[in-house]
Amino acid sequence: MNGSFENLIVWQKSRILAKEMYRLFGKLPDYAFRDQILRATISVMNNIAEGHERRSSLEWRQFLYIAKASAGEVRSMIYLAADLNYLDLDTKEKFIRSSEEIAYMLASLIRKL
Predict the structure, then answer these.
(1) Which of 57, 84, 90, 101 is deepest in the core (most CB within 10 A)?
(2) Are 90 and 51 in contact (CB under 8 A)?
(3) CA angle at residue 15 from 10 to 19, to 5 degrees?
């Protein structure tokens, strides 16, 4: 837990994903979908940050589990976005890979704790 959460690659990647989700879905008229995917995406980066700031390995691990679960929710919503034709196949695959990478990095970090 040395340093700041801003230096964590997983937090940086989750921040990029959140920004991309906002660019893609921020003005989507389907409010329920938009709200759910944006909240889940923000949850990933914010739980990493909040857990890190707790300065307790036990608490940080719990927040990382929440972040990992939110990454799964984002991935699920990306599949739904493709099903609803809110994004094309290439974009879907890009975001699936990104959310999987973040989840993998979180799992690795959890194991290290």
Answers:
(1) 101
(2) no
(3) 150
Q: Record the tokens describing residue 31, joined without a space.
A: 């409010």
CA distances from 23 to 26, 40, 110 (A): 6, 15, 30
pLDDT at residue 1, as a whole number: 59
- C-beta separation of 9 from 98 below 8 A: no
Q: Report how far residue 79's alpha carbon sits from residue 98's, in angstroms, rounded to the nearest whole number.
A: 13
Q: Which two tokens stand for residue 41?
A: 């995406």
For the chain, what is the largest distance between any 2 Cα atoms, rounded to a whole number of angstroms?
Answer: 43
Q: CB neighbours (10 Å) of residue 49?
A: 18
> pLDDT tens, 47-105?
999 999 998 899 999 999 999 999 999 999 999 999 999 999 999 999 999 999 999 99
